[in-house]
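FAQ: What does the model actually see?

It sees only this:
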Amino acid sequence: MSALRIHVIGALGRSGYALCEALIARGYVVIPVIRREGNLPEGVQPARFADLNGDAASLEAALHDAEIIVNTANASYTSAVLAAMPEDSRLVAMGSTRLFTRFPDKFAHDIRKAIHLLSESRVPNIMLLPSMIYGARADVTTRRLVGILQRLPVIPLPKFGRMRIQPIFQGDVTLALIATIELMAGSGHDDLPPFIVIAGPRDVAYRDYLRMVVKAAGLRRRPIISVPVFLLKALIPILGLIPGVPHVTKAEIDRLTENRCFSISDMSKILRVTPIELEEGLRFLFSGKNRRR
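And it is asked to produce this:
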């Protein structure tokens, strides 16, 4: 299986880059498919360039000899990838648990459309749906959160932050992708479900998640106060005036009001991946390590 060629679309992204590193370490032949020049992990094959925004010829050329394709780019490109794939290739796609949001969301719409396209395709395929990912090489989400926490004397949250989330460590996303690739490379992929949710081992209240981030980042503890959603949205322009505070959108505030808890039974039973606890993952993140890379 070490000679298997794996084309990674979006190899410069967080999940794509981590996957390339891990596949190389396992002896796979990794062919990065990227849109522009960038620093790729050592050991990958020469990059192939393709613009997923309409350049069908370049994408088809980049994938002409593909066996397994992993699309870590946005789910909106699923149609283009399916059209460019060789008939005897197989696809592992990445979506997000944003699929299940109750709020109007373009990203969620793109994932629903992608799942529909995949269900109609004759190409063997499966999509992984990760929850919020933390711990990547360039973890913009957590670093952005730290930037906010450093500059606010209190932490304003709707409903005191009681709503629950289930973040997943980047290293566990990588392990899940590799397990899926190996299943797709075998003969039993016909029995796989159309998608598998991958998430942390358990859900936590958002306020507890913030407390863990504060502790792992070495910040001073801040009190959490309950602020109605409408008032938080009204405060967005004011927060934007505070130097160093990243922009927060109304959609992000809306999502703070919904529980994001998921079963990981398929992740455990089919992929045989056991995710690490949130506190452990945050320790690795802020120590600059990635145990599971």
